[in-house]
Amino acid sequence: ESMEDRGDDPALFLMLANPEEYPTGVKRAKSNHTYIQCQLLSTTALTDFDSWLDKDSDGLWTYEEARALEDYYLQKYGADAPISTIHRKIRRTLNNYATEILSIGDEARSPNSTHQAKYVLQSLRTSNGSIPRTVFLTQVEPFYKMCLLVDPSLCGNAVFRQALNRSSFQAPLRRLGFQGPPIAYVANDYEMMGHDDNMVHACEIGVRTVCPAFLSTVYMYAQMNFKDRCGPPQYSIEQF
């Protein structure tokens, strides 16, 4: 069964004739000897900064490196993944979130979120269109596991299995001297006012709001088509 027959978009889920063509350990759906890689392709832009994104190890993920990753996907898998668009969206989104946090009154924001927002703005302004490693690790990568879920109804399952927890969510920030959750969560949490004690709530905000903001319309389209393409999602702890 061809991709054209199914109407699948190669920028979303890879269609494989042989499941060994892609790394193991993630969910696949099989239909008539065609395998669908149900880990959204674009989420690779949210992880493994040092070996996957920052190819020259200068501490910056440049737009040119994002374009090179696009070319790699196209050549190896025939997949048109919009990594350069994601790069631009991450920069713009973080800039907007930081600006928004700093625009509200002092009494409505915590010193921790203020410190993070100022650091993000300064780092982005001096990075010449790139995304610095420290900004990526503290403000983007904490959402990686959430974005893998695609479906926010799976957040409770992931938290119950300890695939997501408050300690691991904040760990990258603590390593660099920050306290509290990333600014992308703070800027979108109108219910808990930026507190991440309820990780199911934090995950749902990530999947519904932050992941689409970082990963563009491709992610939203994948959310709408995930169950139809990959079947009812069933996750285990090993996939995280």
Task: Describe this structure as you would to a colleague.
The chain has 240 residues and is mainly alpha-helical. Helix content is 52%, strand content 6%. β2 and β3 form a beta hairpin. α4 runs antiparallel to α11 (199-230).
Observed structural traits:
mainly alpha; 240 residues; two-stranded antiparallel ribbon; disordered N terminus
Put the structure in a nutshell.
It is built from eleven helices and five strands.
Protein topology:
Elements: H1 3-6, E1 15-16, E2 28-31, E3 34-37, H2 49-53, E4 60-61, H3 63-77, H4 83-103, H5 111-125, E5 131-132, H6 133-139, H7 144-149, H8 155-160, H9 166-175, H10 183-186, H11 199-230
Antiparallel strand pairs: 1-3, 2-3, 4-5
Q: What is the beta-strand fraction?
A: 5-15%
- Compute the separation of the termini in Å: 30 Å
| Average pLDDT number | 79
> What's the helix count?
11
Helix/strand class: mainly alpha
What assembly state would you assign to the polypeptide chains in this entry?
single chain
